[in-house]
């Protein structure tokens, strides 16, 4: 199971808002998927890492 809790903590630590994600190409549907711990594509994961300034380990945790 995916858990995106690390993403929210990393965003807070790096001062990145959800609004910033939206302005940089992450759409509302993807944000909803992240909030509900649903699947995202590798391309989206890469984009998140670039926007937030982190690695995939800072975005998702596998349980």
Describe the structure.
With 63 residues, the chain is mainly alpha-helical. The chain is 54% helix and 6% strand. It is built from 4 helices and 2 strands, in the order βααααβ. Strands 1-2 form a two-stranded antiparallel sheet. The radius of gyration is 10 Å and the shape is globular. The protein starts with a strand and ends with a strand.
Question: Which structural class matches the secondary elements?
Answer: mainly alpha
Q: How far is the N terminus from the C terminus?
A: 5 Å
Poorly predicted runs of 5 or more residues: none
SS element count, helices: 4
As a percent range, the share of strand residues is: 5-15%
* Tally of strands: 2
Helix content: 40-55%
Order of helices and strands: EHHHHE
Give the integer mean of the pLDDT values.
96
Give the count of structural domains.
Answer: 1
Question: What would you say about this model in short?
Answer:
It is built from four helices and two strands. It has 63 residues and is mainly α. It has one domain (2-53).
List keywords for this structure.
single chain; 63 residues; mainly alpha; two-stranded antiparallel sheet; 4 helices; 2 strands; 54% helix; 6% strand; globular
